[in-house]
Amino acid sequence: MRAFQLTHRTTYRYSAPVSVSRHVGYLTPLEAPGHQVVDHHLLTITPTPTEQVTRTDYFGNRQLHFQIEQPHNELVINAYSKVRVAPKPILDPPGGGPTCAEVRERLRASYDAGEILACQMANPSRLTLATEAIAGYAHQHLAPDRPFLEAALALGTKRCLTTGSVWATVSLRWRKYSR
After folding, report:
1. Residue 89 class from Cβ within 10 Å (0-12 exposed, 13-18 middle, 19+ buried)?
2. Which of 99, 121, 149, 165 has the smallest C-beta neighbourhood within 10 Å, fewest atoms?
3. Residue 175 pLDDT > 60, yes or no?
4. Stated pTM of the model
5. Residues paired with residue 22 on neighbouring β-strands, in sequence order
6. Which residues pair with 55 in a beta bridge?
7. Nearest-CA neighbor of 148 among 108, 115, 99?
8. Before 98, cis peptide (omega within 30)?
9. What is the reported pLDDT for 29?
10. Poorest-pLDDT segment among 46-50, 51-55, 135-139
11. What does the pLDDT look like over 69-122, one tens digit per residue?
12. In this predicted structure, what is the pLDDT of residue 93?
């Protein structure tokens, strides 16, 4: 595994003094398969917060909530982390590996954090329209018996669907969407 030392610095400069400020920061690297946080103990915030609470969100990200209750013209946040990253595995050639149906079933049955995140991203949102055109596009490229890597590569090289100025993504779900 390769080791990296990460330094993050954010500086806010205000045009007038701020008397009270509340913030949420995502300053700790996420633990993931092949990505290990070795050390994350040095975090400095200037001016010093009067309140500071750490939480973990739905996706496993550590959130730092803090409040400053003294007049200040500048806020400086420094975070230092050490991580180790494993080399990425070599992917199967496009004709091999699991099929789209096998990947879909694996994602449905998984409790792995990374795979749960992938499932979350397959759902429609207020920024992603779920239309019959997108479903047809998905059916064309993500046929159940097609090798998944081949399908992903084909999707990456094909034009994206658009509706006006809204970019649409393709869902791994094979169901008919209503408009």
Report:
1. exposed
2. 165
3. no
4. 0.55
5. 67
6. 63
7. 99
8. no
9. 85
10. 135-139
11. 999 999 999 999 999 988 876 665 656 788 888 988 887 777 676 666 666 666
12. 61
How many residues are listed for the chain in this entry? 179
SS (H, E, C) the chain: CEEEEEEEEEEEEEEEEECCEEEEECCCCCCECCEEEEEEEEEEEECCCCEEEEEECCCCCEEEEEEECCCEEEEEEEEEEEEEECCCCCCCCCCCCCEHHHHHHHHHHCCCHHHHHHHHCCCCECCECCCHHHHHHHHHHCCCCCEHHHHHHHHHHCCCCEECCEECCCCCCCCCCCC
Q: Which residues are within 8 A (CB) of 125 and not within 5 positions of it... i.e. 6 or more apart?
A: none
Please state the φ and ψ torsions of residue 22, each to the nearest 5 degrees: -120, 140
Q: What are phi and psi of 106, to 5 degrees?
A: -65, -40
